[in-house]
Amino acid sequence: MPSKQDKANIESKQKPPEESYHALIKLGSDMGQAVVMLRNVNGIEGKQVFISNMWAGITGYSRSELLGTSFFDLVKEEDRQASIERYRKRMSGKPVPGKFYLSIRCKSGEDAHLELSSAVSASDGSATNIMFIRDVSSQVVSEAKAREFEEQFQTIIDLASDTGEAIVILQTIDGVEGRYVFVNDLWSDITGYSKEELLDMSAFDLIAPEHKQASRDRYRAVLSGKVQPKLFEGAIITKSGELVPVELSIAPINYHRIPSAIVHLRDITARKEAEKVLLEEKNRYITLFDNAPIVMVEADFSRTKKVFDKLKKAGLSDFDSYFEENPEMVHKCYFEKATMVSNPATINQKEAQGMTKLGKFLEDALANKSDYWRSIKDNLVALAQGKTTISGIKQSITIKGNLKTVQQHLVVAPGYEDTLSKVFLYYIDLTEVKEKERELQKYQHHLEKLVKERTLQLENATEEVQTMLKQEHKTRNKLEEELEKRILFTRLIVHELKTPLTPMLVASEVLHHGLTGSKEKVVARNLYDGAVALNRRIDELLDIARGELKMLQLKKEPVNMIDLINNAIEKMSYEFMARKQVFTSNLNITEACIDADCKRMEQVLVNLLDNASKFSPDKSRIEITAHNTTDNIIVEIADAGPGIPVTDREKIFEPYYSLKGHFRPHSGIGIGLSLAKMLIELHGGVIGVRSGRSQGSVFYFTIPCSGCNKL
Fold it and tell me: Rg of the Cα trace of the chain?
């Protein structure tokens, strides 16, 4: 039986030397590693029998909590089976890789990522697995972040390409600034160079000369850490030599640990073209807006809307009665609006000398319950009630005291119904139309007077005339009926056509200038031409009626015949161009001054030129000549039409006479030449035509010189 001393010696040899443990722990700590020893004890596989303080620190458990428990209880489920199998192989002496990785769940509930290496030795007669453990959580997180960064970077690159944005990265290499070190596919597409070609180039090789220095300065500033504007514009020259405008932003970046500049670029060729078109449209709109003959105003009623809402919140529903009882609120609500823009016609229609005087006039007009106050009140009531379109005919007093008849349109722009921040107002002057209606009424009264006088004469006639009186009465009744029909017809034309024709003329002209499509533009031009022609026909019918009643009067003044002819030519120039007709003029006038109604003479010239264009084939030649005789100016207009038969040459100047046969496509109601004859004769001149079949026609007229010498 061994002695006590022998026992002590054997036990001391079986226990790991204390110095060895300390050396092992110190070595692990110096290397940043924890030390754990595992054994299979009493059915517990991988029981922790020795633990360094570092391992306790990694897990968050105390050493007493860890001792006696299985190491694998800490291992996360997805790594547990693999780590147990590795442990078993190592304990059985089978070869396994030197390092392996797994994750554990710490006491705090967080995961720790570990790098392990192990060796097996005998201790107390049992196999012991000694593990050196390194916490590589920070490394794993860093690697994950690096992968995430790479994925995000690639996602950004792909997304940028999808949204039309090219990305390049630039570095300074071997003294060459702005060398490409990364380019995406889109930049290659924009420049026309392959990626391989670009990676051998500097970005400044492509930049247009006028932008090169500014781009180089920006690049240097970015690399030196200076903040640069987010977006700026430049231009590059592609491989094909095309100049392409680009929008870009540049920022510093470390690419492969080298200070670099990342540049986002976008081809803005389409945008530049759109901006150019937009500017042209804006200029065209401003031109139309400023020169439109109707008043056009854009106003912001949003503050007025707030007054409405406040009154409604207080329980007000009858704004009409409220404004009648509180007239000063009309003034307040109206001047809460802000006029954003108004065209010059606003001043002209009110006969003002400037916006300041116009504003003072409007403010004074609202100080009492004038017609203007009532008109504004009606508009405010309609807006307060939620109406978005308001129309009506109003009487308006100008600053000079003249009464005008105005057709008003107020429209709330779509999408602004809740705020009233964009409201358009249009005012069309109908004064001239109304005056013509009154003239027609005057003509009617004159006709009635003539009829009454004739009736009185017939009633006082002798008995011998009585037999004829019955027939005359029938004739008179028929004449009255015809005259009434004629008057009614003329008045209906003026009233029913002329009233809506003025806004049609303006709207069709605005539409023609606003459209860009060729087909739509042609349609808009046809609308405008038709409206102009209709307006002219109405005026001619009215003039014929005045002439037949001997009530057509001229407003003569000294005018220059050359100016009249040139104005008429200018008005007809579009018609000549539309038919590709060649127009020439030879005005050999030495004494150009005449006493004439400028408007009426121009009406004659336009009428004759229009006939010459309509009756002449496309691409034919039309010529106007003028010269002096001793007392007159003779004007001749030669066309290339089919000619006029001898039998028709006098008849064509009769009212309502139209040429037959092959002239049908151009026929009208036959008043143009009749009116021209009437006007020329009122000026003391004569009009006629020289023509033959298939030889064209020459319409001529004379007009007396006034003897006023040069104008």
Answer: 50
Q: Could you tell me the sign of the dihedral formed by the alpha carbons of 162, 166, 167, 168, in that order?
A: positive
For the sheet containing 338-342, what is the strand order? 338-342, 295-300, 423-429, 403-412, 389-397
| Strand ranges across the sheet with 176-183 | 176-183, 166-173, 258-267, 243-255, 232-237
Residues 121, 123, 127, 132, Cα dihedral to 10°: -50
Calculate what percentage of the chain has a pLDDT beyond 90. Answer: 32
User: In angstroms, rounded to a whole number, what is the distance separating the alpha carbons of residues 332 and 307?
Assistant: 9
Structure tokens at 5: 């001393």
Whole-structure pTM value? 0.35
Annotate 336-354 with b (16+ C-beta within 10 A) or e (fewer): bbeeeebbebbbebbebee
Whether the predicted pLDDT of 255 surpasses 80: yes
Report d(CA 346, CA 424) in Å as an integer: 13
Which residues are CB-contacts of 700 (< 8 A; sequence separation ≥ 6)?
634, 635, 636, 637, 687, 688, 689, 690
Compute the residue count for the chain.
711
User: Per-residue confidence at 276, pLDDT binned at 50, 70, 90?
Assistant: confident
CA distances in angstroms from 460 to 8, 465, 480, 673, listed in the order given: 175, 10, 20, 41
Locate the DSSP E strands across 200-255. 232-237, 243-255
Q: Can you tell me the distance from the alpha carbon of 502 to that of 495, in angstroms, rounded to the nearest whole number?
A: 12
**Per-residue pLDDT band at 477 (split at 50, 70, 90):** confident
* For residue 4, pLDDT beyond 50: no
CB atoms within 10 A of CB 473: 12
If phi > 0 it is left, if psi is from -120 to 50 it is alpha, else beta; for residue 192 that is left
Q: What is the token pair recorded at 547?
A: 């002439």
Instruction: Report how far apart, in Å, the C-alpha atoms of 364 and of each of 304, 368, 491 are.
Output: 20, 8, 38
> Which class for 240: exposed (0-12), middle (13-18), buried (19 or more C-beta within 10 A)?
exposed
Q: Which two tokens stand for residue 452?
A: 């009454």
Q: What is the rounded CA–CA span in Å between residue 231 and residue 244? A: 17
* Angle 225-231-234 from CA coordinates, rounded to 5°: 105
Q: What's the pLDDT score for residue 668?
A: 57
pLDDT at 195 over 80: yes
Instruction: For residue 272, give the 3-state DSSP assignment.
Output: helix
pLDDT at 416: 92
CA atoms of 572 and 524, how far apart (whole Å): 18
pLDDT digits (tens, 9 = 90+) for 626-664: 999 989 999 999 999 888 888 888 888 887 776 665 444
pLDDT in tens, 324-348: 888 888 888 888 888 877 778 776 7
> Rounded distance, CA 331 to CA 368, Å?
9
CA distance 563 to 602: 10
The confidence score (pLDDT) of residue 162 equals 59
Confidence of residue 483 (pLDDT cuts 50, 70, 90): low
Give the tokens for residue 23.
Answer: 């050396």
